[in-house]
Design goal:
Helix Hairpins, Prefoldin subunit 2, PFD2, chaperone, Prefoldin, PFD_beta-like, about 140 residues, two-stranded antiparallel sheet, mainly alpha
């Protein structure tokens, strides 16, 4: 009875796989968000550089909550600089979270002896397991 209870405490292969996929999805979401924030930061840099070259009393338009507002350059530049600083801090935080998630995934892989097959491994396994006629059709659909 004690042996079956200890066996039930260990997660099944399907549960381990589901947890691993969840961790990888979380990492992918973090990477996507990081990429989006880096793009926003680059846009802010371009706008700030452009507005620094024009007269401070010149009119410019800014989208605020879906509404286009008319402002002057000298009114907009401080808020853009502030947003740029916040984006920089957010990117640093996301980089740390992404690094931590990668470490967590590697520890999980090591703990549960998970091997991730690359594209070359999958292709070689498919080619050796499939009959010749199936290989040709699979290759034609890939091209």
């Amino acid at each position: 009875m004690a042996a079956t209870k200890a066996k039930n405490d260990k997660p099944s292969n399907e549960e381990i796989y589901a947890i691993f996929q969840t961790l990888r999805n979380e990492q992918r979401v973090l990477a996507d968000k990081l990429s989006e924030m880096e793009s926003e930061l680059n846009e802010h840099k371009v706008v700030i550089d452009t507005l620094n070259k024009v007269d401070g009393d010149r009119r410019c338009y800014r989208m605020v909550g879906g509404v286009l507002c008319e402002r002057t350059v000298k009114e907009v530049l401080p808020s853009l600089a502030n947003n740029k600083e916040h984006l920089t801090k957010l990117i640093e935080t996301l980089n740390k979270q992404l690094s931590d998630k990668g470490t967590e995934i590697n520890e999980f892989k090591k703990k549960h002896s998970i091997r991730v097959h690359g594209n070359e491994d999958v292709k070689s396994n498919q080619q050796s397991d499939e009959p010749e006629s199936t290989k040709k059709s699979a290759l034609s659909t890939i091209s």
